[in-house]
Design goal:
23% strand; binds iron/sulfur cluster; 12 helices; binds 5'-deoxyadenosine; 4 domains; Transcription Regulator spoIIAA; globular
Length: 444
């Protein structure tokens, strides 16, 4: 698969990574890229320019899965134009549908399910050994020609670094496919997480994003024999040289305990933002969802957090049209949203996932009702987002410049300004306007 560039030294191989779904999927896409980057691939932003594509899939809702599958379909022409190209399909839908994907899309070189991520470097090496051998020769020829490889341009900002601390989920929310495709919880050792945090900070990361399906359930006995919990990890991460901010995703309400709230209060680097899915405001629905909390107990946790950290903004996820959801249940959801006042909310129509408990239920909410509820909920949530954005007009906020004139405030709002632009710098930006979901401002 060596390619000639203008008859001179062979060009470097180009890798495109695309990830559907959550932050973990994006981070996993980055890990999938690792073994290829180590073999000399350079990242490119456009799939058309790529010699290899890693497509990390999501299966949380049918719609997410369909988007990933249709992209695999569209890549047929790209792959067939040059069979030496490499197409790797990975992630949650690959775990659920591996065999079917191989049959339906025979031109895919490698299908790696979400449970195999740890093993992935070995899998990719074995599967693609012959191709990589050619690639190594390409690299050596290029190096001999005196050209230095272009500096890798990451697909995520190198200023914000994801660090996976745990994988999997031990709960059994009745609508959710994730425990099936990701397996049970596994925690990374304290030392390994901290080593990665230090390495990424040393390489220029200013914000660390601690990741896991139920990230705050992380707990391990460290090498010194002492038990470490997520609150300890938050403090330790914040204390690393160069780390200005720490975020985490996704927390489980059960582990937003007093210890973690206290850690928030005493760790200035912990961001003013928490994204914690509530899913519904009806206790009857929450119980059928097997969420193990009530609307009131969820609110109580958030109120405690707000008392400890008044500047915190809350984001959440909500599902409408869960089987048997009545108008009355839905009113409870609107009521909860009115009290929770999330600055951002991701809202979804319930999507049955094969093999989950809820998919067995027959009390389906009609499609049109789901649609109407979603529209009403979105109107309420959009209004709250707008209010929060307007409240920022005229205020000065601290923004971490991620890509040169663009970044996030401590409360996770996106902010754009003109100059000066310098990735990695913390800036004070005065907010002067809004554009869709982005705040516009001027650097002080
Ligand atoms: N149907 C609709 N939404 C779902 N989510 C998870 N499973 C489903 C489903 N079966 C939503 C939840 C979760 C987010 C990642 O996706 O709100 O928090
Ligand atoms: Fe999608 Fe869930 Fe997998 Fe993330 S963990 S990629 S949201 S199915």
């Amino acid at each position: 698969m060596a390619r000639e560039s203008d008859g001179e030294a062979p060009a470097l191989m180009r890798l495109h990574v695309v990830a559907f779904g959550c932050q973990m999927s994006v981070a996993d896409g980055g890990e999938m890229a690792g073994p290829l980057l180590a073999r000399g691939f350079i990242p490119v932003k456009d799939s058309k320019d790529a010699d290899a594509i890693v497509l990390n899939t999501c299966t949380v809702r049918q719609h997410a899965e369909d988007k990933a599958l249709s992209m695999i379909g569209r890549l047929r022409a790209w792959k067939e134009a040059d069979p030496d190209r490499v197409l790797i399909v990975s992630g949650c839908a690959a775990e659920r549908l591996g065999g079917w994907i191989r049959e339906r899309f025979p031109y895919v070189d490698l299908v790696v399910g979400a449970k195999s991520i740890e093993d992935y470097p070995r899998i990719v090496e074995t599967a693609l050994a012959a191709k990589f051998e050619m690639l190594r020769e390409t690299r050596e020829a290029f190096a001999a020609g005196g050209g230095a490889p272009a500096a890798p341009i990451g697909w995520s900002s190198p200023v914000v670094a994801p660090v996976t601390v745990m994988r999997g989920c031990n709960y059994s929310c009745s609508y959710c496919i994730v425990p099936r495709v990701r397996g049970r919880e596994a925690y990374r050792p304290y030392e390994a997480v901290m080593a990665e945090v230090r390495a990424k900070a040393a390489a220029g990361a200013r914000e660390i994003l601690l990741l896991g399906q139920t990230v705050n359930s992380w707990r391990v006995v460290a090498g010194d024999g002492r038990q470490r919990r997520f609150a300890d990890l938050l403090r330790a991460t914040a204390a690393v040289d160069g780390v200005a901010r720490v975020r985490f995703e996704s927390p489980h309400p059960r582990f937003l305990d007093d210890e973690l709230i206290a850690a928030f209060a005493e760790t200035p680097a912990a961001c003013d933002h928490i994204h914690m899915p509530v899913q519904s405001g009806s206790d009857r629905v929450l119980s059928r969802m097997r969420r193990n909390y009530t609307a009131a107990s969820f609110l109580e946790r958030i109120e405690r957090l707000r008392a400890a950290r008044p500047s915190i903004e809350v984001g959440t996820d909500i599902i409408v049209g869960f089987p048997s959801e009545t108008d009355e249940d839905f009113e409870r959801t609107l009521e909860l949203v009115g009290r929770l006042k999330p600055a951002t909310a991701y809202t979804f129509k319930y999507s049955p996932r094969e093999g989950t408990e809820a998919a067995e239920r027959t009390e389906d909410v009609p499609a049109q009702v789901k649609e109407e509820r979603l529209a009403r909920l979105n109107e309420l949530c959009d209004g709250l987002t707008e209010d929060a954005m307007k409240a920022r007009l005229g205020r000065t906020v601290e923004v971490l410049d991620e890509t040169g004139g663009y970044g996030r405030a401590r409360d996770a709002f996106r902010v754009k300004w003109e100059t000066p632009a310098e990735p990695g710098r913390l800036r004070k930006v005065r907010i002067t306007g809004t554009m869709k979901r982005t705040l516009l401002g001027e650097c002080e």
